[in-house]
Amino acid sequence: MPQLRCANAPRTAGLFIQLSMRRHALSPALPVLDLLLPLRASHRATLTTAARRTPASLHPFVNQTTPWRPTKLSPAPNPTARTFSTSPARRATHAIFNPQHGEDGKEMMLEITARAANRLSEIMAKDSNPHLALRIQVESGGCHGFQYLMKLVTLPPTLPKTGVTEEEDPNAPVREDDTIFTFAADDGPAPTADATGPKIILDSPSLELLKGSKVDFTMELIGSQFKIVDNPLATSSCGCGTSFDIKM
């Protein structure tokens, strides 16, 4: 059976010309091949101008000057929401006796970590001695030039206004160049000179070498001990952490 054909069937080329003419009815000077090419720069400029003339209400990402109104997608702000503060956090370590200042005028501090404070509190409770303190002293020696020496001492119930010299009393618990630090919880009141919290005592030369450090309590395979960590002046230290070298 012969294949049926339409007597008025348009050619493919004719349809292509007709579509091109419809597209460019407003701009007959544009070539037919522009149907297959991207928009010209003039067309993009026309579209951009039209978009600029569009009312701002039709652009959801344009900053509006109208007052904020609650919607389903943007609930009202929570008045009880907690905001962030840029104020510095209150430190837990305080100098309660003879605070020292360095050459730059800043107070020389030694931080007591929470673990070290808890361990000192446990020792104080076990010995029933609320006036117990940990004295830290730096001496020359060890495998790296300097070494830490630590021992427990008992402070007087009331700290003196000024300490005594070693010549006056070599066994005095508090000397004139000593500085005493204590640990206080962040939510508690600022400690006073008669505070009964865990304390660290250092002489002036030792504090000069340990300023900015932390007194921590570590539990390792070799044993548990109080330890100096994060000393900004130390360039190297031994494995056990009792000897160190400093920047000269």
UniProtKB/TrEMBL annotation:
Annotated stretches, region: Disordered: 60-88
Molecular-function annotations in GO: 2 iron, 2 sulfur cluster binding; 4 iron, 4 sulfur cluster binding; iron ion binding
GO BP, one annotated term: iron-sulfur cluster assembly
Alphabetical list of InterPro entries matching this protein: HesB-like_dom_sf (IPR035903)
Domain of life of the source: Eukaryota
Annotated GO CC locations: mitochondrion
Family: Belongs to the HesB/IscA family.
The protein's name in its UniProt record: FeS cluster biogenesis domain-containing protein
